[in-house]
Task: structure prediction
Amino acid sequence: MRVLGVDPGLTRLGIAVVDGGVGRAVRAVAVDVIRTPAEDDLSVRLLKVSDAVEGWFDQHRPEVVAIERVFSQHNVRTAMGTAQAAGVVALAAARRGLPVMFHTPSEVKAAVTGSGRADKAQVTIMVTRLLGLSAAPKPADAADALALAICHLWRAPMRDRMAEAEARAAELAKKHRARLAAAARESRTVIK
Result:
């Protein structure tokens, strides 16, 4: 499976493509940071993000997009810009019919380092090791984008199995309720 990982942001948006293989095998395909000048109008910045992401879709043909879920930040303006950038990426993916999954920062950290409280340096070290990179990806936004893709590759099979199990359980519960209702109807007709 090929995953496009996105660490959203207006000034710096980390973007990476990672291929998943058998088991937990992962391979970095590409990584970069999309930058937009703070002095540009918001609409222009969002258009630049959209155009760059579209280029990545054309060049790398991902099967799914994994985006970091925006969490509350102290700076509302920063949180808004981050959310807007994430929305632009999700919209571009939806236009192409690509599934979009959102992962929380702690979920990504736990998947890559084993601890949901890992710092950026720990995430970067583990991403570098897991992908067998000769140098750590910089800036941290690039490492975070790689971590998001890895997180999705490792968590998606589990999520799929959980969804299948929940669907089977719901179907069994539905059949059980139908049998109970039929038995109740039958007992009422026998009593009369």
About this structure: The mean pLDDT is 93. Residues 2-160 form a domain with the Nucleotidyltransferase; domain 5 fold (CATH 3.30.420.10).
